Backbone:
């Protein structure tokens, strides 16, 4: 009995030549402008290719569908497309494929989650409100050329175009968006096979007429898991080829069980301790810097995160081109006596007590928040409490409505590789992610200068200055940069994950 | 009998309306804004939030939303999930997965549970009895998710006898999760059967049957066991409900795309339509299971009849 079971179990996962499987969690959406997490991004990036992408090592911008993207003033951007690009249904990729897709993404009726990333294009407010159907800043010149006009100069716009929300859509997408979402037709290296089988799998087949570098494997099966703990077991049992995020709790065993089939790479995600700056407790920048110095980042990343996170040395992770080195200096390094001195000099915290809020639905939050609270209590002589929120949505909701009087755990992942993307969305006045309520005119003036800068180098220099302003004010304490831990089977090689934490499916070689 | 069935069905409708209304109200009390849950780690854009609220009628008063839901149910429309799937269609696909899982669990409970109970009662204080009591004690005291992880690692990963997770291996996919889901109650069924049967074997009517010269098998199977099974059937009927809630965890651990899994995520995302849709199905199953139990009483004990 058991032998028959064994043989059936082994052959259960059909192993096709040049095909491999990769674990994901259920994506929130497969529409380029509508997903909210990395697994949607993962599948969307295999199905669609935008105007530009980023080099996996350097994160430098590379032209893909675009032949050139130019602007004399950082405000009007001229895009010329390469010839020969087609969607998987044979439709040619033209200027319309982009312009219509972007208008669709912003249109109120489409209710696309990532519509806001088009916010700098002229005419955005009219389309998002439903008053207009098309953004006035988008102009089709001919099939291969179109123009984008922004509301203000923005030197980083070319990078933004690599965000998957800027992918083109074929005309069939608008006829039945719901149906399209279950079986998207893109212009990427892989085409969908069948439909999105929710909570089970999404199978993609290599698209052979792809005009850029073709994918190496013929087929990729994204197996959808509820938890990567189960996926890790499946990897050990030989039913899964790539696990792009080994759970932290299993890293030690993964290192010994997988050997060189376990690898780590840095990502663009980082975590912070944030403060509501309106609160009496946190209005002193000196206090905030003292708290930063009281946190032993090295000890926490080693003990709790098993070395998979790196202590932060500024607001911009090193994977971003143009990131300054060690911008934070001593303020981000643990020093109990300096911290205590700075804390006392700044006048301390009223009541000598404060709370750190965190969401308990993510694995390690509780551990590190409690560890940090303990360190701060000990070094500064204050009473630091912790408060668990059941879900991130609850904490973010409370923060958004200004109900929180406690420090809070928060995180950010870039959507394009520029220092600006770590500064503007989080710390400019009224920005959606500005949970601390930070406002500094000098900082914002520097960001505007960077946006108007004539060259990438001068832009980055200005952003570095802006980062210094921020480090002095410290609305958030930068904590650590997150790494990605990938495990894979013996059947595959050339497994790499980019700093957006996406597996580069096109480069995986399967036997 | 038909009148009895009709009144039970009418009762079921009332229970259904009541239960869905309660769940509907409760989903409003779920912490966190569902629109924010959709947006993940970023703050939801106000324009997006407004559009989603309008699309899913989240901006309407509670009773109006409930009325809309009931109207939909009558037309066979349970609404759609936030990822654009039709809830009714999604549930019909998942019901098949959860149904197979529950059948496996029930089968384990009936075959192993009642079987072990009978063996134990007949060989009281023997080696077999001691063995059954030891295993049932273990079954009752070890949380079933622990059993799940251990089996997954040993039988799935180390020995490779059964698939670790997923539904793609068909029949085999359900053996381990079905066993895990059924394990706790299997132990309980075994103990219940043992106790009931032990008692029944001491009754006069059993001794009478034996003295009439009936075979041991006939006495046990048709006289003693039949009477002993009434509490066991009651338990198994109620168990259907427990199986559904246990499925939430089992389906997650074994990555089975069933209703329990859909429920878990829907609660997390605050997806009202899905939560209420799944609960509607749960309540229906529960009501039907109870009806079946009541009708089985009549079969097991002819003295119980429904006019």
Residues:
């Amino acid at each position: 009995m058991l032998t028959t079971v064994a043989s059936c179990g082994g052959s259960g996962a059909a192993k096709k030549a040049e095909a491999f499987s990769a674990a994901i969690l259920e994506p929130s959406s497969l529409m380029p402008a509508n997903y909210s997490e990395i697994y949607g991004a993962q599948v969307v990036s295999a199905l669609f290719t935008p105007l530009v992408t980023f080099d996996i090592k350097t994160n430098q911008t590379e032209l893909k569908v675009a032949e050139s993207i130019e602007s004399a003033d950082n405000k009007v951007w001229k895009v010329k497309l390469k010839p020969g690009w087609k969607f998987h249904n044979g439709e040619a990729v033209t200027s319309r494929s982009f312009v219509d897709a972007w208008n669709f993404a912003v249109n109120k009726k489409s209710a696309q989650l990532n519509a806001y990333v088009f916010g700098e294009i002229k005419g955005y407010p009219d389309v998002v409100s439903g008053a207009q159907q098309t953004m006035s800043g988008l102009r089709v010149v001919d099939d291969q050329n179109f123009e984008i006009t922004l509301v203000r100069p923005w030197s980083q716009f070319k990078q933004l175009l690599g965000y998957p929300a800027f992918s083109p859509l074929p005309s069939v997408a608008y006829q039945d968006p719901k149906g399209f979402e279950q079986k998207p037709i893109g212009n990427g290296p892989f085409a969908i096979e069948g439909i999105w089988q929710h909570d089970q799998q999404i199978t993609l087949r290599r698209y052979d007429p792809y005009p850029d570098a073709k994918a190496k494997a013929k087929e990729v099966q994204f197996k959808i898991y509820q938890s990567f703990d189960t996926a890790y077991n499946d990897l050990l049992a030989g039913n899964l080829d790539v696990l792009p995020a080994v759970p932290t709790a299993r890293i030690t065993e993964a290192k010994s069980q997988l050997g060189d089939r376990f690898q780590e790479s840095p990502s663009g995600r980082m975590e912070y301790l944030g403060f509501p700056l309106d609160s009496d407790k946190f209005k002193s920048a000196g206090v905030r810097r003292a708290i930063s110095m009281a946190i032993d980042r090295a000890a926490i990343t080693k003990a709790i995160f098993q070395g998979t996170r790196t202590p932060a040395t500024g607001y911009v992770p090193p994977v971003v081109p143009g990131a300054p080195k060690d911008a934070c200096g001593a303020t981000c390094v643990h020093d109990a006596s300096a911290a205590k001195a700075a804390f006392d000099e700044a006048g301390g915290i009223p009541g000598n007590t404060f709370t750190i809020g965190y969401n308990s639905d993510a694995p390690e939050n509780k551990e590190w928040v409690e560890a940090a609270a303990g360190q701060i209590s000990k070094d500064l002589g204050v009473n630091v409490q912790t408060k668990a929120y059941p879900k991130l949505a609850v904490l973010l909701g409370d923060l958004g409505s200004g109900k929180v009087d406690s420090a809070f755990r928060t995180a950010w992942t870039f959507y394009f590789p520029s220092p600006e993307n770590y500064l503007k969305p989080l710390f400019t006045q009224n920005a959606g992610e500005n949970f601390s309520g930070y406002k500094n005119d000098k900082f914002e003036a520097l960001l505007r200068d960077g946006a108007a800068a004539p060259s990438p180098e001068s832009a980055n220099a200005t952003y570095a200055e802006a980062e210094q302003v921020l480090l002095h004010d410290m609305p958030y304490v930068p904590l650590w940069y997150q790494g990605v831990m990938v495990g894979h089977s013996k059947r595959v090689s050339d497994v790499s994950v980019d700093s957006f934490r996406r597996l580069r499916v096109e480069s995986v070689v399967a036997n | 009998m038909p009148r009895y069935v009709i009144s039970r069905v009418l009762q079921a409708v009332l229970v259904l309306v009541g239960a869905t209304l309660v769940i509907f109200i409760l989903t409003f009390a779920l912490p966190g804004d569902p629109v924010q849950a959709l947006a993940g780690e970023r703050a939801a854009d106000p324009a997006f939030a407004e559009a989603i609220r309008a699309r899913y009628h989240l901006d309407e008063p509670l009773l109006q939303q409930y009325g809309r839901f009931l109207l939909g149910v009558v037309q066979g429309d349970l609404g759609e999930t936030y990822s654009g799937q039709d809830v009714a269609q999604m549930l019909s696909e998942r019901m098949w997965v959860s149904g197979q899982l529950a059948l496996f669990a029930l089968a384990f409970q009936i075959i192993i549970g009642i079987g072990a109970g009978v063996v134990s009662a007949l060989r009281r204080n023997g080696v077999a009895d001691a063995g059954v009591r030891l295993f049932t004690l273990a079954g009752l005291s070890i949380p079933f998710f622990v059993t799940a992880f251990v089996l997954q690692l040993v039988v799935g990963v180390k020995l490779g006898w059964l698939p670790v997770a997923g539904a793609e291996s068909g029949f085999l996919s359900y053996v381990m999760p079905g066993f895990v889901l059924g394990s706790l109650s299997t132990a309980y069924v075994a103990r219940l059967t043992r106790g009931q049967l032990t008692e029944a074997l001491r009754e006069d009517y059993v001794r009478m049957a034996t003295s009439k010269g009936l075979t041991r098998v006939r006495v046990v199977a048709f006289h003693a066991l039949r009477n002993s099974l009434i509490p066991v059937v009651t338990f198994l009927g109620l168990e259907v409900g427990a199986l559904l809630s246990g499925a939430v965890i089992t389906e997650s651990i074994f990555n089975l795309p069933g209703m329990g899994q859909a429920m878990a995520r829907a609660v997390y995302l605050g997806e009202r339509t899905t939560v209420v849709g799944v609960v509607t199905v749960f309540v229906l199953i529960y009501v039907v299971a109870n009806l079946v139990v009541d009708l089985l009483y009549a079969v097991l004990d002819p003295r119980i009849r429904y006019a």
Observations:
- Chain A touches chain B through 59 residues (CB under 8 Å).
- The mean pLDDT of chain A is 92.
- The two ends of chain A are 31 Å apart (CA to CA).
